[in-house]
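#structure-requests
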Amino acid sequence: MNNKTLLVVDDEEDILELVRFNLDREGYTVLCAETGEAALRSLKEHAVDLLVLDLMLPGMDGLGVTRRIKNDPRLCRIPIVMLTAKGEEADIVAGLELGADDYVTKPFSPRVLAARVRAVLRRQEQPVASADEVHTIYEFQIHPGRRTVSVDGRPVDLTFTEFQVLAFLSRRPGWVFTRTQIVDAVRGDDYPVTDRSVDVQIVGLRKKLGPYGNYIETVRGVGYRFKEKEVS
């Protein structure tokens, strides 16, 4: 991935330089911007593979930048990793629902940020399987057409919504999804699913999956994700 170009946006010069130095050391080409407006100009002038975006910016903030990017057909496929201060759960949720791919809280470890960037870029390059294909991930085999699941060779009996939640989360291991995103993804035309009922489905899933239920992680204040295994 050392041929990737990243754009880092932060109005604090020290943080901007810290992020730039560490991502440059990973082999990326790193561009920098200190405002949301400058970031949008840079995106139109350069082919950028990923954006590291601070939320607290002068003028147009990070959420405004995310909204502009995701509403632009030329830019909407660029993945975004948000940088945010701890406790800004509402902003994290808003950013994810606008289409951001991941977030890192401040103060942050440069190594963790670099790992998150690698993970998002790696996921971006993975092809999405057809709904008719058997989806195999770790010990799970998920058959969308037959709506069956087996774990380590053992069939697991899931309800319609439990299956939908598991299939949705497992397609993007490591990605954090808000309850609203999960609701939008799993509900049918006449099948009521609410934010709170997502929590109930997760509890049921974990119980039925036994020890493998640990793959479904709670991200406090935000939502859920399917655990991504460490790459050795």
